[in-house]
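Sample intake sheet
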Amino acid sequence: MERAQAEQHFSPGNVVLGSFDSLTFGVPLGFYYLVANTGHGRTRSPRASTSRPRVS
């Protein structure tokens, strides 16, 4: 299992992506993940932001 994880970690695609992220200080991928996760959170629980706690 460790060997498979190491092969995946050092695959050419991951190395290129990691190098690009490092050279650009993480800005492009950071914006991508920010937008992707914000959209995911808004579609996942749309009622959570509009619900109010009960007042007894």
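Comment: The chain has a mean pLDDT of 78. The CA atoms of residues 4 and 22 lie 24 Å apart.
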